[in-house]
Amino acid sequence: MKDSAIIVEKIAFGIDTVAVVAIAAAIFLTSCSHSASANAPTAGASATNSAQSVPTVSLSPSQLNSIKIEPVGSYAFPVEKEAVGNIDYDEDLSVQVFPAYQGTIIRTFVELGAEVQKGQPLYTIKSPDLIQAESNLIGAAATYELTTKELGRAKDLYTTSVGVPQRELEQAISDQQTADGALKAARDAVLVFGKTDAEIDQMIASRKVDPALVVRSPITGKITYKNAQPGFFVQPGNPPAPYSVADVHLKWMLANVPESESGFFHLGQPVAVKTLAYDGRVFKGKISKIYESVDPNTHRVTIRSEITDPKNDLRPGMLANFVIRVDAPLEATAIPANGVVREPDGTMGAWVTTDRRTFTERIIKVGLRNDDHVQILDGLQRGELVVSDGAVFLSNMLQAPPSD
Fold it and tell me: Which of 58, 134, 342, 358 is the most buried (most CB within 10 A)?
């Protein structure tokens, strides 16, 4: 009986061993089946991306509609320098409008931002100097009128039987001439204040002074500053000026360029300016001044450009991008930017083909960029067929090939 129990135990152990082997074999076969299914290519396109092979993608006829193919060519890349700057008014065309004499503002005629013409009244002041000059004018006019009448009476008496001494007639002539000179001088003194001949004649006729001194715009432009209110006391040259007027059709752009690049810039060079406010719009100008000093903290040089702005779109303080071509364009091998793709590892790639159906990715080295073109420094030769639009589409297929 003991021998029989031993035999039964051995038989059971053998059966358990066979079962374990059978289960392990089943798991192995299932794993192999799943692996083979995952690696099977999708219908309509094939892709290879193993460590031992070059990444390649084959497209079906319908998938070819998603890309464009053209030969590697050349492009003239402009050699440019850029800098960021600020827009400002042209200080040479901006005038602070002070009165010629001190006084108190009586009235203002224009508001901030208004367009004005040369000679247009901006404000009036009550000037003691003007009042004194007009008083002298009225007195001189009265004296002239009196001496003229005296001269006429002396001439009448001199020619009649009554008669007057020759000396009295000559004195009357002298007094009248003196009064005439004084009147002319008084008129000129009032004219200096900006009064017209018609206004002077009116004051003489009415025997009343006009205390309002009119201050006019010296140029045609736009009111860029106003600090004028009735009752303010103003003096010549004592800031702040009541008004500032600027010709706004020409602006300044002040840009700071690195000291190491200052030698690229010269007076008269054309510049192109873009601002955040007008995306895509380019304002034209030229370099008008290169400042002599260098900022010791930033080691940058200030460059001033005159920018044409006929519609007065630019505003002082705006940030602007300054672009200038400093050399002749560089002719170089290039492809469209949509033909270049950045891979996850940071490398740049392009897709080349010989049969317009199978495409191979090639690592390239890029250089300059301008508009929609990228300079190719290494990896492609002129004349090779390359994907010019849709490189990202091919790279995505390499990672997860789409079905047709």
Answer: 134
Query: How many independent structural domains does the chain possess?
Result: 3
Torsion on CA atoms 13, 17, 20, 25, rounded to nearest 10: -160
Domain boundary among 328, 361, 385: 328
Q: Which of 223, 245, 267 is the last residue of a domain?
A: 245
Helix or strand holding residue 290 (H, E): strand 283-294
Position 400 scores a pLDDT of: 60
Range of the domain at 264: 84-90+246-328
CATH code for the domain of 322 = 2.40.30.170
| Domain shared by 288 and 341, yes or no | no
What CATH number is associated with residue 362? 2.40.420.20
Strands 348-353 and 300-308, by their bridges, are: unpaired
Task: Please check whether residues 171 and 56 belong to one and the same domain.
Answer: no
pLDDT of residue 127: 86
What is the β-pairing status of strands 121-126 and 212-216?
Answer: antiparallel
- Same domain for 114 and 57: no
* Nearest in space to 359 (alpha carbons), one of 63, 25, 57: 57
Please tell me whether residues 149 and 234 are part of one structural domain: yes
pTM of the shown model: 0.54
3 within domain boundaries: no
SS (H, E, C) the chain: CHHHHHHHHHHHHHHHHHHHHHHHHHHHHHHHHHHHHHCCCCCCCEEECCCCCCCEEECCCCHHHHCEEEECEEEEEEEEEEEEEEEEECHHHEEEECCCCCEEEEEECCCCCCEECCCCEEEEEECHHHHHHHHHHHHHHHHHHHHHHHHHHHHHHHHCCCCCCHHHHHHHHHHHHHHHHHHHHHHHHHHCCCCCHHHHHHHHHHCCCCCEEEEECCCCEEEEEECCCCCCEECCCCCCCCEEEECCCEEEEEEEEEHHHHHHCCCCCEEEEEECCCCCCCEEEEEEEEEEEECCCCCEEEEEEEEECCCCCCCCCCEEEEEEEEEEEEEEEEEEHHHCEECCCCCEEEEEECCCCEEEEEEEEEEEEECCEEEEEECCCCCCEEEEECHHHHHHHHHCCCCC
Residues 55 and 176 in one domain: no
Q: Which residues of the chain have pLDDT under 50?
A: 1-45, 50-52, 402, 404
